[in-house]
Description:
The structure is a single chain. The protein is an all-alpha fold. The chain has one domain. The chain has helices at 9-12, 19-111, 119-131.
Amino acid sequence: MTPCDPVGAGLSQGVRMDGNTRDLLYIVLSICIVWFTVFLCWLLYQAARVLRNANRIVENITDKLELITNAVEYMRDRMEHISTNMGSMGRLVTNIVERFIIGKLQDRFDEGGDVPDTSEEKSMKRARKKTK
Length: 132
């Protein structure tokens, strides 16, 4: 190789490496392959950890959603139960009030008394008395 030759021109002409440099090249290449393999194993391990964490998060969210669903169903069942009871209670109160009022009216009729005036009739009677 002469000083005027371009860089790398000597390699294309078949310059032979001696045994020591070739051995050094193989050692460096094997170390690089080992480090690359270690890096890929580490990368695979990290990916597995990320997927495991994601799986745990999904399981926790699933559990929480299941708890929320159960709570909503329980509340809905309670509300349905209460609404059925409120309907029954409403009918019971209506029947009691009806019997009480009808019983009082019946007692007045049986005694020969007048039927009690409503508030509108009372106000009209008061107005008539004031005008007289």
